[in-house]
Each structure stands twice: as structure tokens, then as C-alpha cells.
Amino acid sequence: MTFLSTIKAAALSAAMIVSVALPAAHADEQYFPLQSYRVGPYAAGGTGFFGGFIDYLNLINIRDGGVNGVKLTWDECETQYEVERGVECYERQKSHAGAAAWNPLSVGIAYAMIDRITADKVPLITVNHGRTDSTDGRVFPYVFPLLLNPYSETSGIVNYIAAKEGGIDKLKGKKIVVLYHGSPYGKETIPIYELLAQKYGFTVQQIEVPHPGNEQQSQWLTIRRAKPDFVVLRGWGVMNPVALKTAVKVGFPVDHIVGNVWSNSEEDVIPAGDAAKGYTAITTQASGNTYPVVQEIVKTVYGASKGNLEDKSRIGSVYHNLGIVNGILNVEAIRVAQEKFGHRTLTGDEVRWGFEHLKLDPAKVEALGAKDLFHSINVSWDNHEGEGYVTFQQWDGKKWNVVSDWIAPDWALLRPIIEKSAEAYAAEKGIKLRTADDANAVTTN
Amino acid sequence: MAAITSDLTSAPVLPKWIAPVLLLAFAYGVVPLIGSSYLFEAILLPFLALGLAGVGLNILTGYAGQVSLGSAAFMAAGAFAAYNFNLRVEGLPLIGSIVLAGIVAAAIGIVFGLPSLRLKGFYLAVSTLAAQFFVQWALTKFSWFSNNSASGVIDAPRLSIGGLALDGAVGRYLFALTIVSILTFLAYRLVSSQTGRNFIAIRDNETAARIIGIPVLKTKLLAFAISSFIIGVAGVIWAFAYLRTVEPDGFDLDRSFQILFIIIIGGLASIRGAFFGAALIVVFPLGLSRLGGFLLGDVFDSGVLDMSQRIVLGALIILFLILEPDGLVALWDRIRRRLLFAWQST
């Protein structure tokens, strides 16, 4: 009898522990499905970005015990930047409860996910890239090209070239060649360069480099014949160092090449060696590890041997810092949503509401330890980009040096173009334009 | 050769149509009820699309003996043609777009099949590369094909047949399954017809085929046309039902190789072989990745896991081709014969 009752008691207490422990373990977690890529031609970008993102999530977990006590979790699924692998990962990871937002870091995969995430009501973040017209929150309720969409980037680059030439009117008669990556990402800006060329009176020639871009002899010979005043490098991965090296080979001056936001990292210039000295590129987040938030990651996360980067010298590199900034934006969106919906696991739609009210002014950015790392963001229900500022940095052979102030792209010029494109998409797909009231209706379970 | 032998040695006990009918009954009646969205979206849809592409290539390469490295180009031609017919021809039903897309792919197939009249073997394979590069280049170069979309990526239209919306995972699965079943059945009838025998005659000995009065020129081009038609429709399924987005880069040379490997691994000159091969190519890496993630996910990051999966997959394919050069179909038939033999002798 005593034996039996002991067993009974043990079973009862075990059942109680399980019943208490199980919901507790699940109730306070917010999950990030990471469709990462650590192999393939774009591994440098993938490891840096997802490394920084994971490092920041780890920082929040270790330092603060999560966001208001809600622990952040994640797992990775390798996509190699390929669309069908990304779709498979999406289907695999979406069954996990409490997904906050998707961050595939691939335009091709993002395009394939738009219908799917809209049906599932979970935000899709394409920081610094993505489909430009998804800036229009009336048509794309769940897609966020945060900080900088491709058109704003283009406007920023053209304004910078104009400033170097001595004013926007000096662009007239100039010639700019855009060397772009042969992918959805690379092609995204073709129409806006044509449009700006018409508006400001410069001529533009756009030359494609087929993916992955490890051979560019013929493209650069064409450039040499065209004798442009500037070359805009809209590259990605291995294409960038090859472009810089080939430019030297054909004798094009590297200080007249301006890199876009995916041609601006250490991984793009170091392999090019001396060929990259003097090369300038646009960025939304400065390089370097002196910012307080990066220092805290070094101390707290890498100090506890939980750092994600294998090569610690990459801490504070451009991609790593972009991952950290992306982590800040995702986490702060959750924080905003938690203030409205409660300190608990949020639904994807609640996180969407959080992103649509994500406003970080320079003071708030400083409080987060990211002063000068990035400028600010101001997302609203119909502007999903959030008016990010850009700056330009020049490579001196060892490190990037900031060579401009924070510059605002010409949003007023771009907004009508974006709206027109988004409305055409809405008409084609039969989507009803969303209003502010629709944006405030949130699915809470 | 393989087709004839497999015909002669197939199971003597049951009529031949029983197995496919049971399989289809299962695929239509049971799978939609029990399958998860992951099963449809990540496994069955790519399996059906690639399996059908394998059937198409098998007609050309397995039966008619013409090696092609341009399969992905014909898929792309089909996908973009269907998109444009659907977009630009008012009131054309979806099925109409798909058939017309197949015809466009077939026409392109005939054009790029012309070198086969003079070239054989590896030389022909290299000349079909022209199709691969030309089609991809044309689709990228002329933005008309993608309706002037900024990034060159187009969204697939909504799938519906006769007012019946097929946008959900199950709907798209049934849509793909129906098309694949019909085309596979037609392909099966074709290879056992006189035309199919002509294909095999040309493959085995072109001179002998010419002497016995087979019109070599016409038959070769017919093989290219039929094969490209099927592959083009497979491209429509890939783009419309599976990914629901189309970009020319998704149809690169890697995809052509993938389809070629499917028929080599599955079994040349076998309709079933294409599906066996597609199952292996689609499902096996996923299983391996799941297993790797489950066993070692906490120890290594996803990059290391992915690299090791490639090594395992490559090693298994080599091992398998050494042990069973005739493909999965031969392996399957041997297992079935053994089982039947064991059953009959008891």
C-alpha cells in the first residue's frame, strides 16, 4: 500500500509539474524563423547579417531576460539564397507557434512569400532591400522594406554624385553607368535610374552582370568604351570585389565608383585588396565596433561564449552591424506591440501593428546604444519604409571612414511613383486598398 | 530497351492498370484529407512538377536518345508563355493558357532540336545549351515578357477552373496532380505506340531505323516537340502552382541538370522512372536536412549541416549508380520480383 501511494503521489506531483511547466514554457516565447544562408556565393552577407541579428537577440535574452520577460527564440533553415529552398523553409518553419516576423534577406524569396505571409498574417521584413512598392502599406499590409527601399537608395546615390559634382544642376550632360546584379534585387532600380536621368538630364547606361558575377571582363570593357563620369555598383556577394579588381584592370578610377547598400561591406573590399582603396559606398548603418550596443554584445554575448560569428574580427563589420540594427528594429517593434497588447507572446498581426508604430527618434536610438550606428526610423501604417537616412563611407585600405553627413533621400519625389506602382499591383491582384481603420483592426489570436 | 524488358517482366499476377489506379485513388481520395500544408507546398508540388519535367525529358533522352541540357529553358518558356497568354488574351480560360504555353514551348523545342539532325551525343547536348542561355537571356532582356515588372519577377495569376478557385495548398495540389496524371497517361500511351517504337529505333541505331523506313528527321523533331510541350507544362506547374512567382533565374542550368539527374537516377526510358527520380531528388535532401537538424542542430550551424548533407547526398548517388546503373526503376522491379517469387513459392 505505501509503495502504491508513493507511486501515486509521485505521478500526481509529476503531472502537476508538467501541467504547470508546459504552458509556462510556451506562454512567454516569441519565435523568429530565420531563413539564413551560410553557404553558397552569398555566405559572407548571410553569416554577417544573421550573426548580428542572433547576437542582438541573445543580448536581449541574456541582459534583459527577453522583451519584458518574453524570451526570444529562433531556429535557422539554410536557403542558399535560392527561392525554392526559401519556400521550403517557410513551410517548414511556419508551423512553429509565436512567429514574430520573417527576415529572409533575399528579394527572390521575399517575392515568393508575399502571398503566403499575407494569408498567414505575419510581417515580412526586407531591411534595406525588397520590393520598392511594398513601402505602400495600403497595398502590402505585411511587408516592410525598413530603413531604405531601393528607390530611396537610388535617390541618395544620385544626390551624393550631384553633391560631388557641385550641385544637382551639374548632373546635366553627365554619364552614369549602373552595373547591376542579374537578379530580382539587381533589376529593381532600373526604372528609377531611367526616371532620374530624365529628370536631371544625365544619361544612364545599365549593364547586367549575370549571377553570381565572378567574371566581368566584357562588362568593364563596355564601360571603358562608354567613358562614364561615374559607375554605380549595384552588386552583391562575389560580384563586388571582382568588379573593383576588373575596374583597375581596365583602368577605371576607383574613386568614381559608388557602391550601393549591398556593395558596402568589408567582405566586398578586402578581397579586392589595393583595388578597393578610395572606393565609396552608401550605407544606413556605419561600420565599426565602438558603438555602445556593439560593445555590450562583445561583453555580454561573446563574453559568455554565445557569440554567433566564428571570426571575431568581423564584429562591427557592415553586415554584422546591419544584423544588429535589424535586431533592434524587430525587438523594438515587439516592444511597441507589447505596450498595446500586453507582455506576452504576440500574434503575427500584433507584431505587424508594432512595426506600423515603430518610431525611433535620434534620442531613442541613443538610449538603445546605437547613436551614429543608424540615424532614426519613423514607420507608419501607410509608409512601411520609415524614412531612413543614409550616409557615405570610403574605404582607406583598412577600414571604412564616413565621408558625409546623414542624408535624407528625396521621399516626396519617390512617393507618387511608389503609390502608382502599388496601385497597379493592387488592381492586377484585385486587392482593396487598406485604410487607417483597417490597419487598426488587429487579429489577436 | 529498358522499356521492353520491363514490359515483359512486369508482375504476372495482377492486371497492369491496377497499381496506377490504386495510386491515383490514394492521391485523390486520401492524401488531400490527411496531408499537411507542408506536405503539399514543400514536397508534393515540386515533386509533381519535376516528375512531369522528367517524363518530358525521358521521352527525348530516354526513348529517342537525344541528350538535352535545355530542359529548364523549356520550363521557363512554358511558364512565361502561360503568364502572358493569361495576361494578354482576354477571356482565355486557364487551361487554354496552359495548352498554348505547351505549344509555344514545343515550337521553341523544334527550333532548338534542328541541330539534332546533324549532331549526336555530347555535341547535341552542348548545342541544346544554346536554348538554355538564349531563352534565359531573352526573358531577362525584353521586359515585355514580365509585363515590364521592375525586378523581372512576376506573380502567378490566381488559379481557377470554371469558377472553382484552387488557391489553397490542396487546390493547387489537385490542379497539378490532374495535369500531371493526364500528361503522364498520354506519354505512357505514346511510348507504347508506333511513334514510341520509332523513337526507340532511332535511339538504338539510326541507320537501321532509316533503312526500315522510319522518317528520322520528322521523328526526331516530333520527339523534341512532345518533350518540350510536356516540360513547358511542367514549368507552368512549377511557377503557378508551386512557387507562385516566376523569375528567369529560377530556370537556370542547374535546373536542367537536376532534371537530367532525375531521369538518370530514376531510370532512362521509363515513365515511372521520372517520378522515382523526382521523389529522390526532392524528398531525400529534405529528409537528410531534417535528420541533420534534429540530430546535430544544436552542435553545428546550418551552414556546416548543409555542406555535410551535400557530401552525404553526393556519396549516396555515386554508390547507388555503381550498384544499380539502370536506375531506381530497375531496383524497384527487382525487389518486386523477389517479393512475388517469395510469395508464390510459399
From TrEMBL, chain A:
Residues 38-397 form the Leucine-binding protein domain. Keywords: Signal. InterPro entries: Leu-bd, Peripla_BP_I. The keyword Signal applies. Pfam families: Peripla_BP_6. Belongs to the leucine-binding protein family. This is ABC transporter permease. It comes from Mesorhizobium jarvisii.
From TrEMBL, chain B:
It is found in: Cell membrane. Pfam families: BPD_transp_2. It is a multi-pass membrane protein. Keywords: Cell membrane, Membrane, Transmembrane, Transmembrane helix. The keyword Flavoprotein does not apply. CDD domains: TM_PBP1_LivM_like (cd06581). GO terms for cellular component: plasma membrane. GO terms for molecular function: branched-chain amino acid transmembrane transporter activity. This is Branched-chain amino acid ABC transporter permease.
